[in-house]
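for the writeup, i need someone to sanity check this before i put it in the appendix. the sequnce is what the collaborator sent (i think, or maybe the updated version? ugh). structure was predicted straight from it, no edits. if anything looks off just tell me and ill rerun, i have time this weekend
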Amino acid sequence: MWEWSFLIITALLWIWSGYLFHRVMSAEKAVVCNGKLRIAYCVGMIAVMLVIIWAMCVIYYDYGYLERLKRLCMLAVIWPIAYIDYKTYRIPNVFILSGLVCRVLLLLAELLMIGGATGRIVLSEVAAAGALLLAAVLCRLMIKDGIGFGDIKLFILMGLMLGMDGIWTAMFLALA
């Protein structure tokens, strides 16, 4: 039962991200990205999503349902940002807001499913967001034009989604 709901929720999130990606890229006049390329990118990311869902269900079975869902929500936000940031050197706020809405909805689910342990999870995520904010601000101050404000907002969202357990690996991979 859980795997089907997992698949449906994640598919809806990735389709929503694809819709936002298509809207943002359609509005970008300076970026060369025709409709066929956008559709191909979206279809490719949906195929990647299916492989990642399989990996989350089979390989990372020891993760809890909500932990896997949080990571897939983060990926649903990141895949369109990767291309848009590559082409335009900016991260649209609509994706950050979508990620925050996902996090709030997942927080409500955590309150219903695990109750008392939610406080510890939220504390870990707020600490992670603060640590990433500090690291990003230091990078911005030390390296001129190395990190933009969109990256800083994305790092905060990553901290809220991944918590202290996952941020350092994610930060290393993001900056590599």
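The chain has a mean pLDDT of 80. The longest helix spans residues 149-175.
thx in advance!!
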